[in-house]
Design a protein that fits this description.
Blueprint (H helix, E strand, L loop, with lengths): L13 H15 L8 H29 L2 H7 L12 H5 L5 H15 L20 H12 L10 H18 L1 H4 L6 H11 L6 E4 L6 H12 L8 E6 L2 H13 L5 E4 L9 E2 L2 E2 L2 E6 L9 H5 L17 H11 E12 L7 H12 L3 E6 L12 E7 L9 E6 L5 E2 L4 E2 L2 H13 L7 E5 H6 L21 H28 L5
Parallel strand pairs: 1-2, 1-6, 2-3, 6-7, 8-10
Antiparallel strand pairs: 4-5, 7-9, 8-9, 10-13, 11-12
Helix pairs in contact: 1-6, 1-7, 2-3, 2-6, 2-11, 7-11, 9-10, 9-15
Length: 498
């Protein structure tokens, strides 16, 4: 039997919230596979938040109208919770808890169709995956905290959700690479792309939604209205799509996010053609194979600059971004550094896009930043309408030496991020760090974009004084002979040498 936890009636700090949520993972440890922690924790976290916000807003309406019926009819809430479906309704009797959760969450989805596949994506009654006693303990752990707005602000809860995702990534790094881009890398990209009020931002491989969320907070950080920023995303993996939807909602944001393959089945259309955005930003899976035929048969003519080889879709994703932005649009992408110099079909596509003068900046990143690979990535920034002083040029930034070394990974520090963003904004040469190269120079190098071709990152060879070095060697040789003579003498005295 699991005892009911005492409810904590106080506002939670970011640290309190993160520590509490991670303790929930300890409950599952040993009984549930680490890569499945999120399947149980994240829907419960969202359901608890949804339920507590409903109760808080209902109580506010009750005080205002002094009538239960009036309160239910007149207060407007983003999500409807049907009668008998609140968290505390389920808590009254935890017998057959798994099936009860399944039933209640289905009722919530029927009243809120946009939550289909988000809150009800987990079967809580699969006892072979989560034993009943662990599920009850997990449910009770969440029960002890109030997660309504009077106790937890949306940004705190959203940040705690991001914290959980990061922790899950470290437990199962191979899975993490499918949906999580290190937030420090995202910060670099968003600060360089610099969204403004009125912009529409699109991520065709949106993972957990981090790039869209950071765009929102970037605008707010500039003192502007983030509600005037319009966010769109598409994600191929249905579980990851659900994570993104939950992430956006817990941050109390609005974004249009669809599930599906952006190359095979783009969801954002406008009058029969593709919808185009002000900014496109993404981190696709690197070197994806099997896309050649899809690109050849694309009905939207997105890949007019060339068809990628079957072994890597990297320059297919770049073309998709270019097809997704307006004539004055800009874009950013995270890729493996091989995309910068591989030849063949990729080299031909790279040449054509460079000749269009759409590549604005290339950044070489440190190794071991990403969860599922130790390989160093790169950032490529695209701009269909460069400022006059940047036309015919590409900025190369060698950011590979600036990082904090962690146990198994590296991490960009605040100063590393600031240095890269500052170099981009000034668009000038910094010794050993950045160079501005004209397109004719790139043509001479067969349109190779390897950063170290253009940024001299190597230390100058020290000049050697041959005469002085020879004197020092002769001196050392004389000292060696003197020591050897003394050692031989000592050995003779001790009887070891005749």
């Amino acid at each position: 039997m699991v005892l009911q936890q005492k409810i904590v009636e106080e506002r939670l700090t970011q640290q309190d919230l993160e520590q509490s949520l991670w303790k929930a993972a300890d409950i599952l440890r040993g009984a549930v596979k680490p890569e499945k922690y999120g399947n149980y924790m994240l829907p419960l976290l969202f359901y608890k938040r949804l339920s507590d916000v409903w109760v808080h807003e209902y109580n506010q309406a009750l005080k205002k109208y002094n009538s239960s019926e009036a309160a239910k009819q007149k207060f407007v809430h983003r999500f409807v919770v049907p009668d008998g479906s609140l968290w505390d309704d389920v808590r009254k009797d935890t017998k057959n808890l798994g099936q009860k959760l399944n039933n209640v969450l289905e009722k919530v989805v029927k009243s809120n169709p946009e939550l289909e596949g988000v809150i009800n994506r987990t079967d809580f009654n699969r006892q072979e995956e989560i034993p009943t006693d662990r599920l009850i303990r997990l449910f009770e752990h969440f029960s002890q905290y109030r997660l309504g707005n009077e106790y937890v602000a949306p940004d705190l809860l959203g940040n705690a959700y991001e914290y959980l995702l990061k922790q899950f990534n470290e437990l199962a790094p191979q899975r993490a690479g499918e949906f999580y881009t290190p937030r420090e890398v995202v910060r670099v990209m968003i600060q360089i792309l610099d969204p403004e009020e009125g912009d529409e931002v699109f991520d065709p491989c949106c993972g957990s939604g981090g790039m869209l969320i950071f765009s929102h907070y970037h605008l707010a950080g500039k003192g502007k209205n983030p509600k005037k920023l319009f966010l769109y995303g598409q994600e191929i993996n249905v579980d990851t799509w659900a994570i993104a939807k939950t992430n956006i909602m817990l941050h109390d944001m609005v974004a249009e996010i669809h599930q599906g393959d952006s190359i095979a089945d783009p969801k954002f259309l406008d009058r029969g053609g593709l919808k185009r955005f002000d900014i496109a930003i993404t981190n696709p899976m690197w070197n994806q194979d099997g896309y050649k035929q899809l690109l050849e048969n694309d009905r939207f003519n997105r890949f007019q600059w060339g068809i990628v080889p079957n072994g890597s879709a990297d320059w297919g994703w770049i073309q998709l971004l270019l097809a997704s932005i307006e004539d004055k649009g800009r874009a950013g992408i995270v890729l493996d550094q091989g995309a910068l110099f591989r030849g063949g079909a990729e080299g031909e596509i790279r040449k054509k896009i460079l000749e269009k003068d759409w590549v604005g900046c290339v950044v070489a990143l440190p190794e071991k930043l990403f969860y599922n690979t130790g390989a160093p990535g790169c950032l490529i920034f695209l701009n269909k309408n460069k400022p006059a002083d940047r036309k015919g040029k590409v900025l190369f930034i060698y950011a590979a030496n600036g990082f904090e070394k962690l146990k198994a990974m590296n991490r960009l520090r605040d100063e590393d991020i600031a240095k890269t963003v500052d170099a981009y904004r000034k668009y000038t040469e910094v010794p050993k760090y950045s160079s501005v190269i004209r397109l004719d120079k790139l043509k001479e190098n067969d349109y190779n974009l390897s950063v170290t071709r253009y940024v001299d990152v190597f230390e100058e060879d020290q000049q050697v004084d041959v005469g002085q070095t020879w004197k020092e060697l002769k001196k050392l040789e004389s000292e060696r002979q003197e020591i050897e003579t003394k050692l031989s003498s000592y050995l003779k005295e001790l009887g070891y040498e005749r």
